[in-house]
Amino acid sequence: MAYRNKVYVAFDGDEDMAAYRTLQMWSANENIDFDLNNAHDLKSSRDSSSEETIKRSLRERMNNSKTFVLLVGEKTKNLYKFVRWEIETAIKLGLPIIVVNLNGNRKTDQLLPPILRDELLIATTFQSKILNYALNNWPESDKKYRKNNQSGHYYYSDSVYEDFGL
């Protein structure tokens, strides 16, 4: 089994690239407490690669990941070619899932891809402090819930957000 220490981020590459780049910027900024050990830094695929080659590369990245982050934008639930496949693969691998709502919602909403309706996950807003908190804490909570055969959607309380001044 591969050593899993990376964070795999899935997103709509056409619509939500700016949000993904913001994650990278937060991680690179020494003044922001945010660490993204990005699985996409392992090796890149060329846009001209076949779908099969790209998926093989993405699966290799997932195999080295300890957490799956899904950036949920306006069109995410309608994406099937790669994003849905990435979600299906994360579920099969049993990766802890963090849903990051780009619309500011703290809970899952109508933009959540239907495949995640009954899955174990935590939802957060797109803010560095709460996302960093989720990256550091959700994998252990996910493990506990799975051990007890629990599923469902979890959220941080308003008091957790308040602790971060959010």
Quick summary of this structure?
The protein has 166 residues and is of the alpha/beta class. 37% of the residues lie in helices and 16% in strands. The chain has a five-stranded parallel beta sheet with strand order 1-2-3-4-5, sandwiched between helices.
Task: Explain this structure.
By secondary structure, this protein is an alpha/beta fold. The protein has a single domain (8-164), classed as Rossmann fold (3-Layer(aba) Sandwich). Helix content is 37%, strand content 16%. The protein is built from five helices and five strands, in the order E-H-H-E-H-E-E-H-E-H. It has helices spanning 17-28, 51-63, 83-93, 128-147, 158-163, and strands at residues 6-10, 65-72, 97-101, 121-125, 153-155. Strand 2, helix 3 (83-93) and strand 3 (97-101) form a beta-alpha-beta unit. The longest helix is centred in the C-terminal third of the chain and has 20 residues, at 128-147. The chain is globular and about 45 Å long.
Write the layout of secondary structure elements.
Blueprint: E1 6-10, H1 17-28, H2 51-63, E2 65-72, H3 83-93, E3 97-101, E4 121-125, H4 128-147, E5 153-155, H5 158-163
Parallel strand pairs: 1-2, 2-3, 3-4, 4-5
Pfam families: ThsB_TIR
Protein name: Thoeris protein ThsB TIR-like domain-containing protein
Domain Thoeris protein ThsB TIR-like: 8-106
